[in-house]
Specification:
Largest sheet: 6 strands, parallel
Oligomer: single chain
Helix content: 40-55%
Strand order of the largest sheet: 4-3-1-2-9-10
Order of helices and strands: EHEHEHHEHEHHEHHEHEHHEHE
CATH class of the largest domain: Alpha Beta
Number of helices: 13
CATH topology of the largest domain: Rossmann fold
CATH architecture of the largest domain: 3-Layer(aba) Sandwich
């Protein structure tokens, strides 16, 4: 009796809860597929760590998700996408997982941002690590060298969100502080360069107004993945379609259940993950 080859899932990796916002969109756009989510909440935030440490953590996440029979992994984490993705794709996968694929969120995001901007002025808010990597600026300018890019690191936003205080007065004060310099540059497009920030979209819109396009990764990555699977039937044909969603966290707490449910949009059950 032949074994069913279509037993592989799509992995989604983030340093914390933010990637659940992306996974929510993925499940909505691709409801038949199986997904496995991993949040490395025990070691968040990644944005303040060195590229070398981020790379090591990301390799561990990749090993974990491939061990869970994932065929393809989406790095929902922008810091992992900026600091580790290239090394994973060029060095780690060819050596250990030559038939597997890993995709990031930055390139699809900048493609949309470039298509939206009219005055060629794009702002980016992200973690310190993502800003220092220069990944967004580099990829934007590859598409159009005439675009001007301003980035602002927002070191406190993730911590406040992870504490469940996204609706607090503190958050409003921080957002105004971080967005003011970008508004002053007369940007017409703003990239939310961290998966956590998607939950703040409406608050950000109230501050920057309706004339500035807000590019939220959760809305982009799902449609891009759908197109990717259409173009890569050799991967799509291996994927299981049982609508099974599995969630793992390296720090199994009540907070993950609470905030995870808020980010994903419905109640989730989380299992403990151990990364080595």
């Amino acid at each position: 009796m032949l074994k069913n080859k279509r037993q592989k899932a799509i992995g989604v990796f983030d340093s914390g809860f933010g990637g659940l916002n992306i996974m929510q969109s993925l499940v909505k756009v691709l409801p038949k597929y199986d997904f496995v989510y991993l949040g490395d909440t025990a070691r968040i935030p990644y944005g303040t760590r060195s590229p070398e440490v981020v790379y090591e953590f990301t390799k561990q996440a990749v090993d974990f998700l491939f061990a869970k029979k994932c065929e393809l992994i989406i790095f929902a984490c922008n810091t992992a996408s900026s600091d580790a993705l290239r090394h994973i794709q060029r060095e780690y996968l060819p050596k250990y997982y030559p038939s597997k694929k890993v995709l990031g969120v930055i390139i699809p995001t900048v493609e949309v941002a470039n298509s939206k901007t009219k005055n060629k002025k794009i702002g980016v808010i992200a973690t310190e690590g993502t800003v220092l990597s220069g990944a967004f600026s580099r990829e934007i300018l590859k598409i159009n060298p005439q675009v001007k890019v301003w980035q602002n690191a927002c070191p406190l936003l993730v911590s406040v969100i992870e504490a469940g205080e996204q609706d607090s007065v503190i958050m409003e004060i921080l957002l105004k502080k971080y967005l003011k310099p970008l508004i002053a540059k007369k940007i017409d497009t703003l990239i939310l360069g961290c998966t956590h920030y998607g939950i703040l979209k409406n608050k950000i819109k109230k501050i920057i107004g309706n004339k500035i396009h807000i590019i939220s990764e959760a809305e982009i990555v799902a449609s891009k993945l759908k197109d990717y699977l259409k173009r890569h039937s050799e991967i799509e044909s291996k994927l299981s379609k049982k609508s099974v969603n599995t969630f793992y966290s390296t720090d199994l707490t009540d907070k993950f259940q609470l905030l995870g449910t808020k980010f994903f949009g419905k109640k989730i059950t989380v299992q403990k993950a151990k990364l080595i």
